[in-house]
Amino acid sequence: MSKTADVLNELDSKNEPALIGYFPAGFPTLDASIAACIAMCEAGVDVLELGVPYSDPVMDGLVIQEATEQALSNGFKLKDLFPALRAITAAVKTPVLVMSYWNPILQYGVEKFARDLKDAGGAGLITPDLIPDEAKQWLDISDELDLDRVFLATPSSSKERLATSANLSRGFVYAVSTMGITGAREDLDRKARDVVAGVKDSGTSTPVCVGIGISTAAQVAEVNSYADGAIVGSLFIKAYLAGGIAVLSSTVTELKSGSK
Amino acid sequence: MSEQTNLRSQEGPYFGEYGGRFVPESLIAALDELDATYKTAKADPSFAAELAELNKTYVGRPSIITEVPKFAKLAGDIRVFLKREDLNHTGSHKINNVIGQALLAKRMGKRRIIAETGAGQHGVASATAAALFGLECVVYMGEVDTQRQALNVARMQLLGATVIPVTTGSRTLKDAINEALRDWVTNVEDTHYLLGTVAGPHPFPTMVRDFHSIIGIESRQQMLDDYGFLPDVLAACVGGGSNAIGLFHAFLDDASVKLWGFEAAGEGIDTPRHAATLSKGKVGVLHGAKSYMLQDEDGQTVESHSISAGLDYPGVGPEHAWLKDISRAEYFGITDDQAMQALKALSQTEGIIPAIETAHALAGVIEYGHNLPAGSSILVNLSGRGDKDMETVGKYFGFLGSN
């Protein structure tokens, strides 16, 4: 069973919107990122995405690129991820998923990474550049450890691929709302509805959440009207840069409450 | 090597454990479309005919073979032959792949091509093909490289391309590829990513190899027709690996022919400043494929260094990784200085100015040719001409003074 899916399903049954918040580990420093993540959870995010900084983040827009670059230049190491995860999951009950490009995990060792992730209280993994076709090792170990694994579904994915993504994802399916990289956009693409509908058509009971391009409470509400959650990242980094934890928390509260 | 008779038949997505498609789901439809279009084109005689006609009347193929006896004396008692890809239109082998992919872009109905470039050779070739076929062209180039290669930026602009300086990460080729991938993820419906080397996700390593394999196919026939034997050794420089695989591929199943690839050892293979991915890298995933790469223990890509911008890349094509592992090809490091001395040597012994990239292969011939039995022969892929490098060369040897 997936704690992440439980949280999302419970909100759904109460007709409450779900907010999934991203923040990079080690940004601007490891301790500051732990505090920021705990604050986000306390302010109301329902699922936390803890990002692993990576030298070549092809799926990320400028805001996240610059934040993760700063984390790396401030000395973030992969082994720091686990104590950070432990500190966050000890402080709050919110499910925490790690989001990482594949090469850091490959170098750490897929199985070891999965076990250490589980030990530190992590719920699972979002893999932006790992498609199910290449994921044999991760599929096996995540089954063994009952970890969430989130694959992407996109506007260009075929019906068959949407079904594969839905069937193999656990926790939720990450529906990409536009053909683009992360970063807040003013108009959320209508294509998001089609992707969510396509995933739901496969008959899956796994929740479907929409990300990439969400920056207002109205968008969070809109997304939650047809999907099981809204994923927000760049906006939270901008909020933190604008005013630290205070503005970060109030932004979370605003997105969450404005959407009720 | 019991499978040796079958080495040429590798069609991807995997070469041994290497290759694959480690990219966001957003790109899979485009890669599938490209793969399907390429397979259809490959089976279509009219595509082959169109490509052959362009190769003959636009690129200037077949490129000739030149024997260089005075240069060969520097490498012992051997014969050295050059496959003259430097004589192609735009001055390097890069045009072979660009023409092929531009034809595919048109078949797919894409109106826009994007490309990455380091030194600017692939960017210039892409801008050239875009002008020829009436496509919009955007070239991503690390900000550092736009400054090092200002003349090539001007060439691309003259050809009608837009050059976008990349200011993220290390601001070099690797980051230009990241930015091109981001553009492609966003504009995949009307845009083809014209990747310039045999790296990246499937089908790029296979397709780019196939478009360059004409180098080896022509060479093999020319050696048999004009000299009556196959060379004992093939030599080529390796950055991403496109010119090397282009030469090697036709010979993969000729067991008597040794394959030597020369990587950039920069300031020294035991210093941190090199680009010797196969010699010093570890297996990982970069830019969509599993292969060797330069990385730290956390899997963060490490910046490469080479005096030659075209070899200054921390990854390498997956087929090379496989050829190394099965010991069909050998890879060696050549320092900046060895390459520059070889560049000067070929210029002054034979009147042929090679690109700094290519000079790594020539230095390899000088370094390792001595180990061959007397009378042995080496065929070198003279992958590009050196005109673009005159500023670097001039400063290095003091012809232009130093800064």
Tell me what the structure shows:
The complex is a heterodimer of chains A (260) and B (403). Chain A is of the alpha/beta class. Chain A has a single domain (3-257), classed as TIM Barrel, CATH 3.20.20. Chain A is 50% helix and 13% strand. Chain A is built from 11 helices and 9 strands. Chain A has a 9-stranded parallel beta sheet with strand order 5-4-3-2-1-9-8-7-6. In chain A, helix 2 runs parallel beside helix 4 (81-91) and helix 8 packs across helix 9. Chain A is globular and about 45 Å long. The model of chain A has no long low-confidence stretch (mean pLDDT 94). The mean pLDDT of chain B is 95. Chain B has helices at residues 28-42, 45-59, 69-72, 94-107, 121-133, 143-148, 150-158, 173-187, 204-212, 214-227, 242-248, 277-280, 318-325, 336-350, 356-368, 390-396; strands spanning 14-15, 18-19, 65-67, 79-84, 112-117, 136-142, 162-166, 191-193, 233-237, 258-266, 282-286, 289-293, 329-335, 377-382. Chain B is of the alpha/beta class and 403 residues long. The relative contact order of chain B is 0.16. In chain B, 42% of the residues lie in helices and 18% in strands. In chain B, helix 2 (45-59) packs across helix 4 and helix 14 (336-350) crosses helix 15 (356-368). Chain B has 2 domains: 14-56 and 94-208, Rossmann fold; 60-91 and 213-396, 3-Layer(aba) Sandwich (Rossmann fold). Classes of the chains: A alpha/beta (260), B alpha/beta (403). The interface between A and B is large, with 40 and 35 residues.
Structural class of chain B: alpha/beta
Share in β-strands of chain B: 15-25%
Count of domains of chain A: 1
What best-fitting shape of chain B do the alpha-carbon axes yield? Answer: globular
Query: How would you sum up the major sheet of chain B?
Result: 6 strands, mixed
Total helical elements of chain A: 11
Average residue pLDDT of chain B: 95
Contiguous uncertain segments of 5+ residues of chain B: none
Question: Mind telling me the CATH class of the largest domain in chain B?
Answer: Alpha Beta
Distance between the termini of chain A: 28 Å
User: In this structure, how is the largest beta sheet of chain A organized?
Assistant: 9 strands, parallel
Number of helices of chain B: 16
Radius of gyration of chain B: 19 Å
The main sheet of chain A orders its strands as: 5-4-3-2-1-9-8-7-6
Tell me the name of the CATH homologous superfamily of chain A: Aldolase class I
Strand content of chain A: 5-15%
Largest interface: A-B, 40 and 35 residues
Q: What are the secondary-structure elements of chain A, in order, as H or E?
A: HEHEHHEHHEHEEHEHEHEH
- What is the global morphology of chain A? globular
What is the C-level CATH assignment of chain A? Alpha Beta
Rg estimate of chain A, integer Å: 16 Å
